[in-house]
Amino acid sequence: MSSLQGYVDRRVLLILQDGRAIVGIMAGFDQKSNVVLSDSKERVYSMEEGVEEIPLGLYLVKGDMIILIGELDESVDQAVDLSSIRAEPLPPIRY
C-alpha cells in the first residue's frame, strides 16, 4: 500500500480490467487501493482514428478494477501527437 504514496500529486496512467486507460493526477488512495484522480481523461484507442481523450474531471476508481498504475513523464506525454496513434483497444481482462 505504501508504494502508492509515491504517486500522489503525480500524473499517472491506470489500465482497468474492462480495458479502459485513464490518465490523471493521483489525488489520493485508501487501504483498499481505491484511487482518486483529478483532472482525469479516458484515452480511447482506435485503428480508424487517433486517440480520443474524454474529460472525466475528478474520478474515483475502485481498487479491484485496477490492473496497472504507472507514472507518466509529463514532458514526454505532452510531446506525443495522440491524433497520429492508431492502436487496437485493450480487451477486457477475464478471470
From TrEMBL:
One of its GO terms (biological process) is mRNA splicing, via spliceosome. Keywords: mRNA processing, mRNA splicing, Nucleus, Ribonucleoprotein, RNA-binding, Spliceosome. It is found in: Nucleus. Residues 1-75 form the Sm domain. It holds the Pfam family LSM. The keyword RNA-binding applies. One of its GO terms (molecular function) is mRNA binding. One of its GO terms (cellular component) is precatalytic spliceosome. SUPFAM superfamilies: Sm-like ribonucleoproteins (SSF50182). CDD domains: LSm8 (cd01727). The keyword Cell inner membrane does not apply. PANTHER family: LSM1, U6 SNRNA-ASSOCIATED SM-LIKE PROTEIN LSM8. Plays role in pre-mRNA splicing as component of the U4/U6-U5 tri-snRNP complex that is involved in spliceosome assembly, and as component of the precatalytic spliceosome (spliceosome B complex). The heptameric LSM2-8 complex binds specifically to the 3'-terminal U-tract of U6 snRNA. Belongs to the snRNP Sm proteins family. This is LSM2-LSM8 complex subunit LSM8.
